[in-house]
Structures are given as C-alpha cells and as structure tokens.
Amino acid sequence: MTIKIALIQLRVVESKDKNLKNAVDLIRIAKKEKEANVVVLPECFNAPYTVDSLTAVAEPVPGGETCRALAKAATDYGVYVVGGSIVESLGGQLYNTCTVWGPEGDLLATYRKVHLCDSSLSGKTTVPETKLFTAGSQFATFTVAETRIGLGICWDMRFPEFAAAYRALGCDLLIYPAVCDVPTGELHWELLAKARALDNQTFVAFCSPARDTHAKLIPYGHSLVVDPWGSVLQRATEFQEIVVADLVLKELSMVRHRIPVFDQKRADLYELKVRSS
After folding, report:
1. Is the pLDDT of residue 242 over 90?
2. ω into residue 62 within 30 of 0, thus cis?
3. Quick one: the chain helix, strand, coil %, rounded to 5?
4. pLDDT tens, position by position, 55-68
5. I want to staple 245 with a disulfide (CB 3.0 to 4.6 A). Which of 1, 189, 234, 255 is the partner?
6. Active site includes 43?
7. What span, in angstroms and rounded, lies between the C-alpha atoms of 248 and 260?
8. CB 202 within 8 A of CB 5
C-alpha cells in the first residue's frame, strides 16, 4: 500500500474566517488535484502565533467552528485530515490540540501537545506556552488502512523517547504540525526530521505555516517528508504551497531487515517503558 500525504503549508493571517476558508480550499486541491489521501495542516493554522491571537480563537473540541469546518472538509472530499493544531478550550484551561478527521467526518484522534515550548533562538519568546497552555498527558494514534500513525506537535520533535514510544506502539508514520522560527529552523528542522526517521525507521512529516516576514514569530516554512532511510522525499520552499509525497510502505520492512537495530537493542541494559492510555 502507498499513502499519498499532502502537507499544506498555508499562510496564516489575522482573520480566523479567512484562514479556515484557505485551509478548506487547499484541502480540496490536495485531494481533487493532487490525489492525496492524508492531508496535514500546520500548528496553530487558524490564527497568528501570538498570545492575544491564539487566546481569541480558542474553541471547544469537537464542537467549535474550526472542528466543524475540518469535519465537513474531510467528508466533502473523502480524505483523512490531520488538523494541524488549534487552541482548545476545556474546563477553563487551554490546550494546543491536534484533531484528526476521517473521510466520513468522524473524529479519529485528539492529541494535546505534551512538551510545551518557551524557547526561541531569536532571543525572545513570542508565546510562553507553559503559561498559556496546559500540557497534554497522552499519546494519540490513528490508522489509515493498516498503517498506524502517531501524532506530535512542534516541540515534541525534540524528544527521541517520545518518538520511540510511538514506534513501540506500532506506528510507521509520525506527523508533527509545527511553528518553528527561522533561526531554529535553519539549524535543526531537517536534522530533527531525519533523526526521528532514522532512530525509529519510520516515515516522518513536519508541516509548517508559510513564511510571513511581518509576523512576530516568522515561520521557517520548508515542510518536509523523510523516509525511513533518512532521505528527504519532498521539501517545500518558504511560500504557501502543497507538498505531496508517496510513502511506499514496503520500504519499512526492507529498512528494518537490512538494519535490524530493533532486534539488537539491549533490554538487559536499557528499556523504554510506554504508558499508553
């Protein structure tokens, strides 16, 4: 089986309505013109990455405006939609949350960002996530045909144990919607994607917003898909575009057979313990 994944690197503007319309239009193009069966949006795709903007667009999951728009798009175009992330309002707390919608509009997974980020190589923190958000505490996976897919959001990509836990749960593809600034992206973006793919012999996808030089945090862009050999299959520029890659899943068994590191781990010396919900 082949998964055709589309990363939607959209340009985020101040208007939530315009962002949602743009996202739905690009989902349509990804399915109808690019023939993708899994479509991914970036982190915080419905508002600029600032405290005021994110707080203003907080909504419940799954009943909020953004969730309804994503569910309808998934149904209208018969595609799996990984809804980047939005600000979820729940019980007086805010979460940075990714929702996944099936081709019939059903909510397949909800993932709340586990590792919150206050760091910025540019010298200032645009959004102090540990003050704004409550951290999630659960892994989240969903399945396309027989392929199990694990979810992370941005800063999660820096934690190899987190990705390894998804591998232990049987995931063959890891998807990380992200907002990464330019200085950090130039140093670490591609390196982290390759590292997580090689560490776990999985496909890895990082999906960024398009670059906006007027934003308080200027996104790096360059959304990319990496195969289990650590090779970049497809990479975006910094502009708004759709990146499409064919994931040939039979490559997973070939890589794991030729480089059998998971058979060679020393459980007598070290062992990963995964607490799944």
Report:
1. yes
2. yes
3. 30, 25, 45
4. 999 999 999 999 99
5. 234
6. yes
7. 19
8. no
